[in-house]
Design brief:
The structure holds three protein chains of three kinds.
Chain A: H1 8-21, H2 32-56, E1 65-73, E2 78-84, H3 88-105, H4 113-132, H5 136-145, H6 147-157, H7 162-189, H8 198-203, H9 208-225, H10 234-241, H11 244-269, H12 271-298, H13 302-321, H14 326-357, H15 373-386, H16 393-406, H17 413-442, H18 448-453, H19 461-479, H20 482-505, H21 507-510
Antiparallel strand pairs in A: 1-2
Helix pairs in contact in A: 1-2, 1-4, 2-3, 2-4, 3-4, 3-11, 3-14, 3-19, 4-5, 4-6, 4-11, 5-7, 6-7, 7-9, 7-10, 9-11, 9-12, 10-13, 11-13, 11-14, 12-13, 12-17, 12-20, 13-14, 13-16, 13-17, 14-15, 14-16, 14-19, 14-20, 15-17, 15-19, 16-19
Chain B: H1 2-9, H2 13-31, H3 33-38, H4 40-66, E1 72-81, E2 84-92, H5 94-117, H6 124-142, H7 147-165, H8 172-203, H9 208-221, H10 226-243, H11 252-255, H12 261-270, H13 272-282, H14 284-287, H15 291-312, H16 318-338, H17 342-374, H18 378-381, H19 390-393, H20 395-409, H21 415-430, H22 432-457, H23 466-481, H24 516-531, H25 542-546, H26 557-562, H27 566-592, H28 598-604, H29 606-613, H30 618-663, H31 671-691
Antiparallel strand pairs in B: 1-2
Chain C: H1 4-24, H2 28-53, H3 59-89
The chains are: A mainly alpha, B mainly alpha, C mainly alpha.
């Protein structure tokens, strides 16, 4: 098989789960061999992904690349069809990266290690599948494939309220996913041709009422995943009870599945409905940012605090998607990747701190920085990244969303004014909760109870390595965002052009809420 | 000369060299912390030499600019999305080169000073890496060619300030102060971001001159109302309000004194706080077209100047007094910008950088000496009530402090006189009321600065006075106890500072002069404090010939010389020196010769005294409104989330359970019952299909 | 000729009596007897329709023979089950057969 036609994506998707099937047969004591096995598999898969990216992916090509298609049920046009374009490629690479690091972060797991690593590798496959598949039913299948491993990972290795959290997670997400199935079937059987292929579905022309219904259905499902207020309440529980490596996956990758799907389906396939719903998305995005920042501030449990901060950051993604500009969409993509990295680093550090202090309640901590200066330094760096300090990727992402939305000609001036004002309030709220968290954990005099009962050791080289691995792209993309934006720029540009041509052409029939040309501002971009 | 061109091409090294130093030392600290912490001197020498190299490069650039080299700009594409491109790079023009020199010289001297000041501190190496990081950020800021890049470095210096204020992270006041600084600056950044976005939306560019031109166009053609443009500009101005500690976002600066004195000198006196004034200067093409904005800027500056001075007269902590003095002087600079005196404001920035840095370093030297006597408790070592007569023990410090005090009071021929006089002169032409505020403030400045000088260096040494020590310790406890009220997060923090034990650190009965590492920078800074004012004298204003707003024609010295008016100069200058002398005389009478009794005067104007002592109660107001308010709001929102939004979810689960419990009674195990149900259902279906 | 409706009415009546007996009887033998009654009512129905609609092809009669056979088989199996239950539980009261209760 020549390199150009090697089924890269299929191999990388199926490799982890296949390798996981061998785990029961590996001789092992206390999980030591298993973890090296899992790490090796993860690394190999990631290397394969990078190799496929460098060899087979052309940055200037906005179409699907690395495509493969094997027919399964011809009458329904069901295929095993995978491909990567600008939207999926960064997220696929992110998945490989974060999941491998999460496996490395799982080193201290001693309870049922075989099952744990099996589930992690299963997650690896599932996540890659979601981003890579191009067939709707297969997409639904991969989406649902996430649920069971997460349920098990939460309920067996989680915190005190793990059973409640796991049940809530699986029921809530599965309930939302039902809408994906219904909508997918409706779309597939609409019109003359029956097809489940995403590209073909995007090319179909749907009646506007049909589009609105399908859009609403998809929106409910992805609003649960992303999450969008008010369908977000599973997240504090699920993330709050998850152990660190699971948390890295949950917040680093799973949330991005929602964002990716929003762009791929809602924007890519249903542009007219998007024009109607976009103001609603903006409003909910703003609510996400401010509401979640406030709840995070009030939260006294460390893991839940960071969980709420994830919701807040995803608000920018929503607004970027709804901005009708290439810049906004680009910013949303960058924010997804950036938050994946930053979130993973923060959750890992929270887990590392919890491993030492054995408490998640902020009041019971204090002055920890004296004994753990390295963790303190890393935590500070990651918190600064999270509050969008320039020089880190979060800043560029938020800036692009800000500028993209502020200069968007799809919204009236007043709407944008108020929206940008409220979004910027988030800029003030974020450091409040992050820095006060740092202050309560690390600064100040040492908490006597804590010091007496717990042994506070500083970071191991493994932990420093993980954070260093995460900080390199965070700072790298922060200093030179072009490295990342050029990967998806062609695709987002085309998607925005398509969206704008369809949505603005149909504006008289679609009657979107706030779609008004802006006051005569010169749109001269440098 | 081609070599000059080559220097411009390598100008990016100026911010990068300190960054490299910080990166190497920082990486060493995080990976091999034991080894790196012991390599104190080598790390210091490494970083100081990198900064020195940056300083040399800055001087070369500066001289080239003085000789008339044109503005050099170099940009690269940083991020792009479709047609939209953001470019980053650097620009070396007159203002940038001047700022480079100021920042590198002060940073270099502060780094040398740090070797003496932090010699016994376990975090010595970490401090140097932070200092280097800060220098890099500040240097990056001053060579930024557009507003976006300024914003980037703006936040970075804010971060460095956060790290440095909270350097001694084991202290609760330091932890609170660094967070306060960052959040307050973020409020300013909020305004700056919004203004920047708005201006970009309106003008399509982040470049200063382009923005100014296009904005003027839009306003004159009616595309944008003047009011809206003014709002945008004022939003941008919010950034400098926070960064340069103007009212109402000034509250972080006095608390920032929790950081070690070298950074108080570098960041909170000479450079970072000057960044706000620098930004106003850069935004001058935009601001000067909008008279409303200029008025707002001028009055903000004037009010801040007066407020800072009014609080400084009652402060007992030497560093807090200098902090309020800085706030006041920054007010002068901002006011100057607001009345259009671009050159005067920046001139004062330069002179202030040098003499304020020297004053702060001098205070650090004093604290260093006091710590030998009273221990490492800041409540004792920094309180002027425990000082006095230090001139005998620390002559170099005292002399340099006196020079700095004379400079800040505006006594000729020291630097402060020329710059302050320029400002007052320009202000008088625009608004006599503003001038009056500035003039009065000058008098108050002279008063409190000499109060500080006399309390610290003259009279008898009070450091060993046990009564005063006990009183101060009691005040400290009360201040900490007050933080036990609603909103304190951790009641376990009522421990007295660990440094309160004076068994360690109590070396001697009298203070000693500081080591050469500390006195050398003091002496080095004394030179510009005395002489640099001569660069901007009204009769031969080299400074204004060099630094002028962009777009204005370059008028050579001849113009400035021709417009010089001796009588005007004497009146203005005379009045400012006059009020300064009045202030000094008052201070002499109250604190040197004890002819007037300060406490009696304080009793007579008790409410005003309290207002001043409690910093106009602004901290308390902010605490109640913003700190407690946001905590309550957040708590409420969390309650809504947990009880209502999550409640609905749990309600769904509850309903499921309850209905399950209800429906289970249908499963009673009796087959006949089931048969009946089946029969009923079939009957129903038949009827239904019969009807429809 | 006797009209069709009378046969159907008779069958319906028998069926309802059978249902009533099925649902309300306490004794399981009675239930089985009621089931037989219901089956025979259905047989009546089948034969009546068959006779009136298409007497030549004896579809209904054939079906009836099937039903009779099945009824016989079902009755024997049912009685065997009842016997087994009786041997274990010592009762044939339907109310006592509620082990599958919630």
């Amino acid at each position: 098989m020549e390199l150009a036609h090697f089924p890269w994506l299929t191999v990388t998707i199926l490799l982890p789960i296949t390798a996981a099937l061998f785990i029961p047969f590996i001789p092992d004591k206390d999980g030591r061999t298993i973890r090296w096995y899992a790490l090796t598999v993860g690394l190999i898969d990631f290397v394969l992904l990078v190799f496929a990216f460098t060899q087979g992916y052309d940055i200037s090509n906005p179409d699907l690349q690395l495509t493969e298609s094997y027919t399964w049920v011809a009458q329904l046009d069901l295929k095993w069809s995978v491909g990567a374009d600008g939207l999926s490629m960064p997220l696929i690479l992110l998945t490989g990266f974060i999941t491998t690091l999460a496996i490395l972060a799982s080193w201290p797991v001693t309870l049922k290690p075989r099952l744990f690593y099996f589930l992690m590798l299963a997650m690896y496959s599932g996540q890659l599948g979601v981003f890579a598949v191009q067939d709707m039913l297969l997409f639904f299948f991969m989406w649902e494939l996430e649920l069971i491993p997460v349920y098990l990972l939460l309920s067996i290795w989680g915190g005190k309220k793990r059973l409640y959290a796991a049940t809530k997670f699986i029921l809530y997400t599965a309930g939302g996913s039902l809408f994906i199935l219904v909508a997918a079937l409706a779309m597939a059987f609409y019109g003359d041709t029956i097809t489940f292929d995403m590209g073909a579905l995007a090319a179909k022309d749907y009646a506007i009422n049909f589009q609105l219904l399908i859009y609403a259905a998809f929106l409910i499902a992805y609003a649960v995943k992303l999450p969008i207020f008010p369908l977000h309440t599973w997240l504090p529980d699920a993330h709050g009870e998850a152990t660190a490596p699971v948390h890295m996956l949950l917040a680093g990758i799973l949330l991005k599945m929602g964002g990716y799907a929003l762009i791929r389906m809602n924007v890519g396939m249903l542009p007219d409905a998007h024009a109607t719903f976009a103001p609603v998305l903006v409003i909910f995005g703003i609510i996400n940012i401010i509401y979640a920042a406030l709840t995070s501030f009030a939260q006294r449990n460390l893991k839940r605090k960071i969980a709420y901060s994830s919701i807040s950051h995803m608000g920018f993604v929503i607004i970027g998607i709804a901005s009708f500009t290439n810049l906004g969409l680009s910013g949303a993509m960058l924010q997804m990747v950036s938050h994946g990295l930053i979130g993973a680093s923060l959750f890992f550090l929270v887990g590392a701190t919890y491993d030492r202090t054995h408490t998640l309640i902020l009041n019971e901590m204090g002055g920890v920085g004296k004994k753990m200066p390295k963790i303190f330094a890393m935590f500070t760096a990651c918190s600064l990244a999270s509050l969008a300090l320039p020089g880190m990727s979060g800043f560029v992402a938020e800036l692009m969303v800000f500028v993209g939305f502020a200069t968007s000609d799809a919204y009236s001036f007043t709407f944008r004014l108020i929206a940008v004002l409220l979004m910027a309030v988030g800029v003030i709220l974020t450091p409040i909760y992050l820095l006060s968290m740092l202050r309560e954990i690390f600064y100040g005099p040492e908490n006597r109870d804590l010091v007496e009962h717990e042994v506070l050791v500083d970071a191991e080289p493994r932990e420093v390595f993980i954070i260093a691995c995460l900080l390199v792209p965070i700072i790298g993309f922060g200093f030179y965002p072009k490295l990342l934006t050029q990967v998806y720029d062609a695709t987002t540009l085309r998607m925005t052009d398509m969206l704008r041509s369809k949505a603005f052409a149909a504006s008289d029939t679609a009657q979107p809420l706030a779609l008004m040309p802006v006051l005569q501002a010169p749109e001269i971009l440098e | 000369m081609e070599s000059i061109e080559a220097i411009y091409e390598y100008a990016w090294l100026v911010p990068v060299l300190p960054l490299v130093g910080a990166a190497i030392v920082g990486t060493g600290l995080i990976s091999y912390s034991q080894t790196t912490s012991t390599l104190r001197r080598p790390a210091a020498v490494f970083i100081v030499s990198l900064t020195g190299a940056a300083m040399v490069l800055s001087f070369l650039l500066f001289f080239s600019q003085v000789q008339g080299h044109e503005t050099y700009t170099r940009m690269i594409e940083w991020a792009s999305a479709g047609d939209f491109r953001i470019t980053m790079g650097y620009t070396i023009d007159h203002l940038a080169s001047l700022m480079l020199v100021i920042v590198t010289t002060v940073a270099f001297l502060v780094m040398v000073y740090t070797d003496g000041y932090m010699a016994h501190d376990p975090g010595y190496v970490r401090f140097y890496s932070y200092l280097s990081l800060f220098s890099s950020s500040m240097l990056g800021l001053v060579i930024s060619p557009n507003l976006l890049q300024v914003y980037v470095f703006w936040e970075l210096v804010g971060m460095c300030s956060y790290l440095l204020i909270g350097f001694w992270y084991g202290r609760k006041p330091a932890a609170d102060a660094c967070q306060k600084a960052f959040v307050t600056n973020r409020v300013g950044d909020f305004g700056l971001l919004l203004g920047m976005l708005a201006l970009f939306w309106a003008t399509g560019s982040f470049e200063f001159e382009v923005m100014g031109d296009r904005l003027t166009e839009l306003v004159t053609t009616g595309g944008l109302t003047t009011g809206l443009a003014a709002i945008f500009a004022i939003l941008v101005f919010l950034g400098p309000v926070a960064k340069s500690a103007q009212f109402p976002l000034h509250v972080w600066l006095p608390d920032a004194m929790e950081g070690p004195t070298p950074i108080s000198a570098l960041i909170h006196a000479a450079t970072m706080v000057a960044a706000g004034v620098f930004l106003v200067a850069r935004m001058f093409p935009v601001f000067e077209q909008l008279p409303t904005v200029m008025t707002v800027v001028a009055w903000t500056g004037a009010f801040t100047a007066f407020m800072g001075a009014s609080i400084a007269i009652t402060q007992n902590d030497i560093k807090k007094g200098l902090a309020y003095s800085t706030m006041s002087q920054l007010g002068y600079m901002v006011m100057a910008m607001g009345v259009g005196a671009y050159g005067a404001g920046l001139f004062h920035l330069m002179t202030h950088a040098y003499f304020k840095a020297m004053l702060f370093l001098g205070s650090g030297s004093v604290i260093h000496g006091m710590e030998e006597v009273v221990g490492h408790n800041p409540a004792l070592a920094q309180d002027m009530r425990l000082m006095g007569g230090l001139r005998k023990y620390m002559p170099i410090t005292a002399t340099t402090f006196l020079i700095g005090t004379l400079a800040i009071c505006g006594i000729p021929p020291f630097a402060g006189f020329w710059s302050k006089d320029e400002i007052l002169g320009s202000t008088f032409e625009v608004s006599p009321v503003l001038w009056a505020v500035g003039w009065l403030t000058a008098g108050i400045t002279a008063f409190y600065m000499f109060r500080m000088y006399f309390s610290t260096f003259e009279g008898e040494f009070r450091g060993t006075n046990k009564e005063i020590q006990i009183q101060l310790k009691r005040e400290q406890l009360m201040a900490m106890g007050a933080s036990l009220g609603p909103g304190a997060m951790n009641s376990k923090e009522l421990t007295l500072d660990a440094e309160a034990h004076d068994d360690h650190g109590h070396h001697s009965e009298v203070p000693h002069e500081s080591p050469i590492a500390m006195t050398f920078p003091l002496m080095a800074l004394a030179v510009p404090s005395v002489l640099i004012g001569l660069l901007g004298t009204p009769f031969a204003n080299y400074f204004e010939a060099f630094i002028h707003p962009p777009g204005e024609a370059v008028e050579a010295l001849a113009e400035a010389g021709g417009a010089f008016d001796w009588s005007e100069f004497l009146i203005m200058g005379g009045s400012s020196v006059g009020i300064g002398l009045i202030g000094i005389t008052l201070a002499v009478m109250m604190y040197r010769t004890r002819q007037l009794d300060p406490s009696a005067i304080a009793d007579r104007i008790k409410p005003l005294y309290q207002l001043s002592k409690n910093k106009w109660y602004i901290d308390e107001i902010y605490d109640v409104v913003f700190v407690q308010g946001s905590r309550k709001l957040a708590k409420q929102v969390l309650e809504i989330d947990v009880r209502i939004v999550d409640g609905l979810v749990n309600l769904a689960g509850f309903v499921t359970l309850v209905s399950g419990e209800g429906l289970k009674y249908l499963e009673n195990g009796r087959a006949q019952f089931y048969a009946l149900i089946v029969f009923g259902a079939v009957l129903g279906l038949v009827l239904l299909s019969g009807i429809t | 000729m006797i009209q069709l409706e009378y046969f159907l009415l008779l069958a319906a009546a028998l069926f309802c009596i059978g249902i009533y007996g099925l649902v309300t009887s306490r004794n399981v033998i009675r239930v089985l007897m009621s089931i037989e009654l219901m089956l025979n009512a259905v047989n009546l129905n089948l034969m009546a329709f068959s006779n009136y609609l298409d007497p030549a092809s004896a579809t209904g009669q054939v079906f009836t023979v099937f039903v009779i056979t099945i009824a016989a088989a079902e009755a024997s199996v049912g009685l065997a089950i009842v016997l087994s239950i009786y041997r274990n539980r010592d009762t044939v009261d339907m109310e006592q057969f509620n082990l599958l209760k919630w």
